[in-house]
Amino acid sequence: MDIRLDNQVAIVTGGSRGIGAATVKLFAECGSNVVFAYRSNAAAAEAVVRSCPGGNERVIAVRADVAKMRDARKLIETAVTRFSRIDALVANAGIWPADPLPIERMTEREWDEMIAINLKGVFTVINQAVPHMIERKGGRIIVVSSTAGQRGESFHTHYGASKGGVISFVKGLSTELAPHHILVNCVAPGWVDTDMCVPVLTQPREARRINSGIPLGRVARPEEVAMPILFLASEMASYITGEILNVNGGNVLCG
Ligand code: NAP
Asked: Is residue 133 part of a domain?
């Protein structure tokens, strides 16, 4: 059975680059209409729209900061106004500052920004999308967490805390929304070759250290995270909710 999402409507946050961009393209290739959010990189967002089948007939980019409730509202309203429904929400937007940050040097501003985007930014879009899903008596929510949400991440402890918070949020929502036939799951990637990791993966010694710590011996391509996200949005995952799908080459058990 092929995965098809013909005439469905998906919302993806952080769709202009990396995992989000791969997800937008894959969903569009499977027949879905897609409305995606980006924060500031309009050129990257436009390139993603152009690369999708159907172009701007079926794929819409919205400049929206997920940390702001009014922007989340604009994103969801755009989807409902244009396509009249929401079948899937992929809460993917996130930040990970590459420089190691010891806790005693972490500022209140750095902590607040991390939590505002990675944790509150998941709440805002879910908060705005769920009433539409309840009305239609169903939907899929897929949140992108991280290995760091399960084992923590030293020198990036605010990131680990935000991603762990997301997992707990998903677990609670999955049972709360199950009576409405809304399935809520996480995908938790390990290292993925995106702009986020460029500062680390372009250092040969660091790249060797990271690759040798992954049982499959390499970092993931963004498409390799987009495919499990698609699976969770598809009919193939109709009895899965409250789960954390690890996509990490075996890495979560190591290091
Ligand atoms: P990326 O390549 O840096 O892309 C980030 C995307 O999020 C961009 O589209 C960016 O928009 C958008 N974004 C950032 N802040 C936003 C905000 N406040 N509002 C709306 N959009 C915002 O990142 P990625 O590697 O694909 O990561 C995607 C998700 O996977 C994140 O949640 C990340 O934590 C998680 N993850 C990544 C890895 C990894 O190794 N890469 C591992 C585990 C988990 P602009 O283009 O406009 O900046």
From this structure: yes
Q: Which of 159, 160, 174, 248 is catalytic?
A: 159
Q: Can you give the pLDDT at residue 254?
A: 45
Residue 159: active-site member: yes
- pLDDT at 232 > cutoff 60: yes
Q: Where does ligand 1 bind, in terms of residues with CB under 6 Å?
A: 13-20, 37-41, 44, 64-67, 92-96, 117, 121, 144, 146, 189, 191-192, 194-197
- Which residue's CA is minimally distant from atom 8 of ligand 1? 14
Q: Which domain holds residue 233?
A: 9-247
- Within a domain: 144: yes
- CA 67 to chain CA centroid, Å, is 14
Q: How far is the CA of 66 from the centre of ligand 1 (A)?
A: 11
pLDDT number for residue 255: 43
Residues 204-231: pLDDT tens digits? 999 999 999 999 999 999 999 999 999 9
Protein residue with least CA distance to atom 3, ligand 1:
196
Per the structure, the count of domains in the chain is 1
In tens, the pLDDT along 13-26 reads 999 999 999 999 99
97 in a domain, yes or no?
Answer: yes
CA of 179 to the centre of ligand 1 (A): 31
- Model confidence at 251, pLDDT cuts 50, 70, 90, reads confident
Task: Give the atom of ligand 1 at the shortest distance from the alpha carbon of 116.
Answer: 18
Q: Which strands make up the sheet holding 244-247, listed edge to edge?
A: 59-63, 33-38, 9-13, 88-91, 139-144, 182-189, 244-247
Q: What are the residue ranges of helices labelled H in the chain?
A: 18-29, 42-51, 55-58, 69-83, 108-115, 121-136, 148-151, 157-177, 198-201, 204-212, 222-233
Give the CATH number for residue 190: 3.40.50.720
